[in-house]
Specification:
Blueprint: H1 2-9, H2 14-27, H3 32-37, H4 76-87, H5 91-100, H6 113-124, H7 130-142, H8 152-171, H9 182-189, H10 198-208, H11 213-225
């Protein structure tokens, strides 16, 4: 009965729901300091839809893009952790902001910690309105600024590094660490007199880069479910 209510309320199939609840059982036992340090603390378990041939398994001796050091073999949990340490030091802040932004109404369990956790997950997966993700990205960069404003360069950097992290999780190949596009930074900066506000960020994304929310939802999908779990037709990955 409880699972049926969850399936009615959250856009997850039964397999996904059970997998995410398994992550919650781990998350509920962690200290806040741990969740602040790593997005991966919730999902250090097996992946969904891992093929029999384990095709995502890293090849020993794969070379990095900046040197000749071989990347050692690792399981997916370590691969996920590496992607976050290498590309996304903000991963813990992303998780915390998703949890802080949860707004439930009409679920029948609006104050339940597990319901709030599930809502944060489906938001990160892009299965709610895209503005939820845009708000998370903005608030992570804005931090505790008052009034809340963000640096254009930092916003574009974060979204670009989400793309790099997703590519690493999906293809298990070292990703060339190019700089994020300066043209995007200049375009976003041109909409503001100084720092970027949340309305200006939303307006710029809608008019110039309408798929930016998929940088976080694609990364979250790969990080939570693994690189071979199919996307929903209504929530495709970043093209």
């Amino acid at each position: 009965e409880t699972q049926r209510r969850m399936l009615d309320y959250f856009p997850l199939d039964q397999e996904e729901l059970l997998f995410v609840l398994k992550g919650y059982s781990k998350f509920a036992k962690t200290k806040k300091d741990d969740t602040e340090s790593s997005f991966a603390i919730m999902f250090e378990t097996e992946t969904l839809a891992t093929p029999d041939n384990n095709s995502y398994r890293e090849m020993e001796g794969t070379l990095g893009d900046d040197d000749n050091k071989a990347i050692p073999p690792m399981d997916f949990a370590k691969q996920r952790q590496y992607a976050q340490e290498e590309f996304l030091p903000e991963s813990g802040a992303i998780l915390q902001q998703a949890l802080a932004n949860v707004f439930l109404i009409g679920s029948g369990n609006d104050t339940s910690p597990v319901y709030q956790y599930l809502e944060a997950v489906v938001t990160l997966l892009g299965r709610r309105a895209s503005r939820g993700i845009l708000s998370i990205l903005f608030q992570v960069v804005a931090g505790n600024s008052n009034p809340p404003v963000a640096d254009a360069d930092s916003l574009i950097s974060l979204t670009y590094r989400l793309i790099l992290a997703s590519a690493y999780l999906q293809f298990r190949q070292p990703t060339l660490r190019r700089m994020h596009p300066r043209s995007w930074v200049e375009s976003l900066s041109s909409r503001c007199t100084s720092k970027v506000t949340l309305p200006a960020w939303n307006e710029w994304v809608n008019s110039v880069a309408p798929q930016i929310d998929k940088t976080l939802s694609t990364f979250s999908h790969h990080a939570i479910f693994g690189p071979h779990h199919p996307f929903r037709s209504t929530n495709p990955p970043l093209a």
